[in-house]
Amino acid sequence: MWGILLLGGAAIITVWWAVRLVLVDETQRRLPDHLTLPAALGAVTGALLTEPVLILGGLAWAGAYLLGRGIGGGDVKLALSLGVLAAAAGGVTGVLAAVVAASAVTVVRSVVRRGKAVPHGPSMLVGTFIVVFHDTWQGALSHLGGAS
C-alpha cells in the first residue's frame, strides 16, 4: 500500500512540475533553473543509485543540444533529466525516439503557428511522455501475456 501511495505522490509532483515547465516556457520562453536543475540532480542521483549507465542517456541528449544551434540553456538542462528518464524507459532507442518525437512536435507546432518560433521544452516533455507511455504499455502487455 505504501508503494502505491509513494508512486501516486511522485506522479502528482511530476505532473505539477511538467505543467509548470510548460506554462513558464509558453509564456516567458524560458525554462528556469529552479525547475530544471533539481530535476537534473534528481535524475542523475536516482540513476547513480540504481543504474548509473542511464546517465549516458541524459548526457547524450544534453550534449546533442549543446552542439546544436537555437537551443537554450534551459532546454539543455531539461534534456539531462528527460534523457535519463527516456533511457530508463527504452534504452538508447528510447532516447533517440524522445529526441526525434520532440523535434517533430516542435516542427508541427511551428507549422500550425505559421512559422512562428515555438518553445521547445513542451515538445521535449511530450516526446519523453510518448517513450515512457510506450514502454509502460509494452510492459503491461507482456505481463498480461505472461499471466495467461
UniProtKB/TrEMBL annotation:
<feature type="transmembrane region" description="Helical">
    <location>
        <begin position="6"/>
        <end position="23"/>
    </location>
</feature>
<dbReference type="GO" id="GO:0004190">
    <property type="term" value="F:aspartic-type endopeptidase activity"/>
</dbReference>
<keyword id="KW-1133">Transmembrane helix</keyword>
<keyword id="KW-0378">Hydrolase</keyword>
<feature type="domain" description="Prepilin type IV endopeptidase peptidase">
    <location>
        <begin position="12"/>
        <end position="106"/>
    </location>
</feature>
<feature type="transmembrane region" description="Helical">
    <location>
        <begin position="82"/>
        <end position="108"/>
    </location>
</feature>
<keyword id="KW-0812">Transmembrane</keyword>
<dbReference type="Pfam" id="PF01478">
    <property type="entry name" value="Peptidase_A24"/>
</dbReference>
<dbReference type="InterPro" id="IPR000045">
    <property type="entry name" value="Prepilin_IV_endopep_pep"/>
</dbReference>
<keyword id="KW-0472">Membrane</keyword>
<feature type="transmembrane region" description="Helical">
    <location>
        <begin position="35"/>
        <end position="62"/>
    </location>
</feature>
<protein>
    <submittedName>
        <fullName>Prepilin peptidase</fullName>
        <ecNumber>3.4.23.43</ecNumber>
    </submittedName>
</protein>
